[in-house]
């Protein structure tokens, strides 16, 4: 443990206590060592008693810095764990970080390139184009082709700082879980484990580059999404080089309207892009907040999205994809029994759940939504409310579903911001129905058979030999089983004989002992004892020696 980590630990504890977050733990649940540790820090008091608990948590995370801010942002999407007030406060956390020294950025870039910047790039701009909690972006021109590029570089020592904070978070979560005990709703250790996977993934810019290349390839022929070209030969774990693109921030609706952008088409394409990424490619951008999305300045009548920052990507299992699609379709068909069945079949809730009780709970949540016009119904909020309802039935929310819910909420929010009358159901239903028809029914069966024909044709010549081998193995297995049965029966026969002789000898020995002590004539006692001894020896020697069958 270093002095820096001790200082950081004290800073975290001081912030937690200054915002009175220790009050969130009930005193009767707090163990003696927790109460003693709190009492020893008597000079650190709650300085924000006038604020709600949720607001104090938000302010504390904001003060603790980027790692905690990102944790708060992630928690704001976990409506299955948090109540509305807490989620609302954490959603307001903003990741605003001043840029670091450009000399350090230059040094970090050259260390990754193992060459001076000027040997590969011209017009390197010392002033950063953008700055975030983990990385910083500078612009330049690629010397080999004269094209404009951006260089994304990690902040100095950011990995060590994040790992140190994550270690403290993990230790704190484990202690909190012990204090809260079994059955607590928050599940802090699980939350921190999911968060670690997410944020550590953002520390590897080489991985982000590969994600961007894959997403770009998925939409090469698309007129709805453009992913900047990545210069893979210049990408490293701490440096990423990609094409510089120009566009209008998706949140700048005034600028979009000023250039005559077809906002209705743009909003509908956003929904289609989401469902295409999830159901066609099973590889979706899971961090689509407004800062990562721009709109093309070309062809405003036929606009397309520009996607940046592919550090966090999501995937689903084939089973989860099918259950999600069926969930959406069942919801709009008001088939609440099917929704309840899907949650149980998918393993999201326990198989011991009372289906009728769960169905009724789902109906109570979903039915009021149909009093709204279809263009006001939110898929994201449907999922959110279903997860929240399922929380009462011990739902187990998978991390990939949390990413999906967050992404869906982002997409819907952007779509409604661009075009308030957006009818999500009309846009998504044809896509879902077509996808479902491809997954089940004759067409799906045909596609699966077609996909497996090369494998089956490769194995076809081996089938006769495999059949013969299996018949031989079956015959051998039957013979082995018969031998085992014979050995078992022989063992049982010997065991019963031995037990009978031993029990008989014990009876004779007991009788002989009694006769010896009470009878005037001793020969019956001698006979009984002698015969009992002989039978004991015979029984002992006849017992089975081997228990292996």
UniProtKB/TrEMBL annotation:
Segments crossing the lipid bilayer: 500-517, 523-540
GO biological process: regulation of ubiquinone biosynthetic process; ubiquinone biosynthetic process
Domain of life: Bacteria
Swiss-Prot/TrEMBL keywords: ATP-binding, Cell inner membrane, Cell membrane, Kinase, Membrane, Nucleotide-binding, Transferase, Transmembrane, Transmembrane helix, Ubiquinone, Ubiquinone biosynthesis
Membrane topology: Multi-pass membrane protein
GO MF term list: ATP binding; protein kinase activity
Name assigned to this protein: Probable protein kinase UbiB
């Amino acid at each position: 443990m270093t002095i820096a980590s001790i200082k950081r630990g004290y800073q975290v504890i001081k912030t937690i206590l200054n915002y009175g977050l220790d009050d969130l733990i009930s005193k009767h649940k707090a163990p003696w060592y927790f109460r003693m540790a709190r009492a020893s820090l008597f000079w650190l008091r709650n300085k924000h008693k006038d604020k709600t608990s949720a607001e104090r948590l938000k302010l504390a995370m904001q003060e603790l810095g980027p790692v905690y801010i990102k944790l708060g942002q992630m928690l704001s999407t976990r409506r299955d764990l948090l109540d509305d007030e807490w989620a609302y406060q954490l959603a307001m956390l903003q990741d605003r970080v001043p840029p670091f020294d450009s000399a350090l950025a230059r040094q970090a870039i050259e260390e990754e390139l193992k060459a001076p910047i000027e040997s590969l790039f011209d017009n390197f701009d010392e002033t950063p184009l953008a700055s975030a909690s983990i990385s910083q972006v500078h612009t330049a021109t690629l010397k080999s082709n004269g094209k404009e590029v951006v260089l994304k570089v990690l902040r100095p020592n950011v990995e060590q700082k994040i790992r140190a904070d994550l270690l403290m978070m993990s230790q704190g979560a484990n202690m909190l879980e012990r204090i809260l005990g079994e059955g607590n709703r928050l599940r802090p250790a699980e939350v921190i484990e999911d968060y670690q996977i997410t944020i550590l993934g953002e520390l590897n810019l080489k991985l982000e580059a590969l994600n961007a290349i894959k997403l770009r390839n998925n939409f090469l022929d698309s007129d709805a999404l453009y992913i900047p070209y990545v210069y893979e030969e210049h990408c490293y774990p701490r440096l990423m080089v990609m094409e510089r693109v120009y566009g209008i921030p998706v949140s700048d609706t005034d600028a979009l309207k000023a250039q005559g952008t077809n906002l209705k088409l743009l909003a509908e394409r956003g929904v289609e892009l989401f469902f295409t990424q999830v159901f066609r490619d099973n590889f979706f951008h899971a961090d689509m907040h407004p800062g990562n999305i721009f709109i093309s300045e070309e062809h405003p009548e036929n606009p397309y999205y520009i996607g940046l920052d592919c550090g966090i990507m999501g995937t689903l299992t084939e089973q989860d994809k099918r259950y999600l699609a069926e969930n959406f379709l069942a919801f709009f068909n008001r088939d609440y029994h099917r929704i309840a069945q899907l949650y149980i079949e998918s393993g999201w809730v326990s198989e011991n759940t009372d289906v009728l009780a769960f169905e009724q709970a789902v109906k109570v949540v979903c039915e009021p939504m149909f009093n709204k016009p279809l263009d006001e119904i939110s898929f994201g909020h449907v999922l959110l409310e279903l997860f929240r309802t399922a929380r009462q039935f011990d739902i187990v929310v998978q991390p990939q579903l949390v990413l999906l819910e967050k992404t869906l909420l982002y997409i819907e929010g952007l779509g409604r911001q661009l075009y308030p009358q957006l009818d999500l159901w009309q846009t998504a239903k044809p896509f879902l129905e077509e996808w479902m028809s491809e997954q089940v029914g004759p067409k799906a069966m045909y596609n699966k058979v077609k996909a497996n024909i090369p494998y089956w044709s490769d194995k076809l010549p081996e089938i006769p030999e495999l059949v013969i081998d299996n018949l031989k193995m079956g015959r051998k297995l039957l013979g082995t089983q018969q031998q085992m049965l014979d050995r078992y029966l022989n063992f049982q026969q010997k065991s019963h004989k031995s037990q009978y002789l031993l029990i008989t000898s014990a009876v004779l020995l007991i009788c002989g002992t009694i006769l010896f002590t009470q009878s005037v004539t001793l020969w019956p006692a001698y006979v009984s004892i002698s015969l009992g001894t002989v039978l004991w020896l015979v029984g002992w020697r006849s017992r089975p020696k081997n228990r292996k069958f």
